[in-house]
Amino acid sequence: MNADDDTGAQGEDTSIAGPTTLGPEDARAVDALVEHGFDAQRATATHPELAERIAAARALFGRLEAPAVEAPDPAIIDATLARIAREESARESRMRIDSAREPARAALGSGRWKDFIAVACVAIMVLATGVPIATWLRSRSIDARCTDNMRSIASALDVYTKDHGSMPFAAGLGADFSSLLNWSGYRNSGHLDPLSEHSYCDPACLCCAGAPSGSGYAFQVPSRLAEWRWRGGERVPVLSDRNPIVDFKRRGIPVVSFVGNSPDHGGRGENMLFTDGSVEFVATPVLTLPRRGAASPGTPTEENVWLPATPAGTEVLDAPHAWTGLDVFLLH
Questions:
Q1: pLDDT tens digit sequence for 123-144
Q2: CB-CB contact of 176 with 170 (8 Å)
Q3: Phi, psi (5° rounding) for residue 264?
Q4: 3-state DSSP call for residue 179?
């Protein structure tokens, strides 16, 4: 960004020097600030190559927040108000109608309803455009923070698997689910607790910014029948936002649709962390993934990651004893 040198000295050229539009790198810096809620530190962490431009952009936005350094001259205020009063009085005298001939119209305030309607229309337009824009900006901020959380978890898994030789697994949450009555009683997100307990990542990273307090991410349910490895070559989802079907079951709500999106992002989709370390925002839980198991390994197949598969080829949530363990099942 270019700062203008304007000294205001008499006789000197005070024209603006340099370009008057943002360059591509400046525009990227401003976009980075907006995506991270004008938090310069988070924006710089994501885009270190734009550190100086992000700092400059944040400083310019800061000027808009700065209060006025000098109080206005009272004489100027009085003169301005007096001029407004004179103009208002002259306008009313031109618009005034004889009350004897037009009593009904005079009672309406000498035609000032038009001004009221104009102000009301402007207010309606501001509400109609301002509220959706504010909602959109908040949604983008939640999306960006959720993506950052999953990237932090990916970095934590890199270090954890190197230190321990396996994925994190919480004590007391075994891989044999045959004794469970239903999936709604199982808290699979607890397997991620060792990451925060042993300082591999911040505890705040284990939950989406758009999720209710205490609702963690949905983690792939472990299975002895279909092992998967972190950065092991096969690209399958290992982490996502909350499973909406499980939310319905835990609240006693009958499940009507099995293809709903996570509530963490307003039903628009969900962030997913894959075993290759990448993070992707998907608009549906039905993904095309490699077929798992001995039969036709690697053959692409469509799977609903919210539901476990059964030997009959169906996906239902109320039969943990029948789960084949050969598909991807994400549960929080």
A1: 777 666 666 766 766 778 888 8
A2: no
A3: -65, -25
A4: coil
